[in-house]
Amino acid sequence: MRQRLNLMVITVLAALTGCAVNLPQPDAAQLEPKEKAWQASAPSTARLAAQKEWWQSWQDPVLDGLLIAAQQANPTLEFAQARIREARAKAYSAKSYLWPTIGATAVGTRSQNELMSPNYITNNGSVGLDASWEIDLWGGIRAAEQGLVANMKAREVEWHDAQVSVAAEVANAYVALRAYQAMADIVAADLESRNRSLQLTQDKASVGLASPVDVALADASSADSVAQLAEMQEGVAISIKALVAVTGLSEAQVRAQISQGQRQLPQPLGFAVTSLPAEVITQRHDIRVEAEKVKVAAADVGIAKVARLPSLSLFGAISVGRQETSSVELSGNSWSFGPTVKLPIFNAGRLKSEEEAAQARFEQALAMYQQQVRFAVREVEQTMVKLDSSNQRVAATLRSVAGYQKQQDATNAMWKAGSANLLDLEISRRFLLTAQTKQISLQREQLALWISLYKAVGGEWPQNSVSH
């Protein structure tokens, strides 16, 4: 009769295993951005490349070497990889709860109690095997597994994001280095010109053709150029330090690599941006992470719901024992098997509150996802606006450099011929130098904006370059 009752309980409750709790699911309208098309103009450049091969399309071997070095040994990536391994282990461990657990025991004792008479020495020994199995009636274990798998996927996405972030950090430091080098070369050439003017002015002053004021002006102009050159050299040194930190190479190795390239900025290189915001946004790593967090929160809701429902577990044990006392020996076997049903009856509303809290966390995760989508759309839009403005400013600055260069050449010729004074020469020289350094600064900004846009649209580091 008892065996029939046990079998009946098991059969009824096992039939309920297909009745898994429903997890909350956001609809498409809650996940997609409201904007169906970009409001900002798509950025343009003379050279376009496929987004997936963007880094290689720079065609800069020095940059390629620095990028690969940074991807191979970087604490940020190693930290992200360790988080993946942790999340993967947790996800795999969740599956173990769907199966029985089996354990073995072995016990041996020898005892004597002198308070009892007769005080025989007793030897006891037993070996046993026990098993337990919690039946996943309502899908709670599967919900936990889904949450841990989503957490693992989020960690993997974070690793990809770390790859792109490291590559962007290297590229920005490299662009800054080449910008400072290019400006240093311009300032060095300008300093050489100013020193020649200083020497000529001193020669004129020695024969009475120039005043001490002209000599002082030429000397001050030379000193000003020396200060600017020192500033550019400082920028080069700081950029090298940044590359050392992010690549893990020694400073000697970094300096050796950058000496192999040209001391000029890479040419602007763009890529086509997909016209549909929804397609672009879902490529972004932060959006994908937030989407996985929504799944984790949904799984927590399922776990909280299951906690309020009955649970079923099975337990079985087999034991073989032997006891020796003086001349008496006893041995035998024992076994037990049966289900255990637990039903939450009274917990002062704790389980209901925990379910409500889990539901609130799900709504928070969904709201955070939606907020991140809005931020992503804004970031892409703003970067495209800045790029469009940058293109116009670079074009205008190129015109101004050409104009100031003509003025400088003409003024310098007039000064040597004696038809222009030194002040006119210094003014034209200052205009030219300002325009030239501004041109390089804008070109550096333009490249930095393309790098930002690459991250903003969810660009990937080539997966065949470095694996985890």
UniProtKB/TrEMBL annotation:
It comes from the Bacteria. It is a lipid-anchor. Its main location: membrane. The keyword Lipoprotein applies. Coiled coil: none annotated. It is found in: Cell membrane; Membrane. Residues 1-20 form the signal peptide. The keyword Repeat does not apply. Keywords: Lipoprotein, Membrane, Palmitate, Signal, Transmembrane, Transmembrane beta strand. PANTHER family: MULTIDRUG RESISTANCE OUTER MEMBRANE PROTEIN MDTP-RELATED, OUTER MEMBRANE CATION EFFLUX PROTEIN. Belongs to the outer membrane factor (OMF) (TC 1.B.17) family. This is Efflux transporter outer membrane subunit. It comes from Deefgea tanakiae. The lineage of its organism: Bacteria, Pseudomonadati, Pseudomonadota, Betaproteobacteria, Neisseriales.
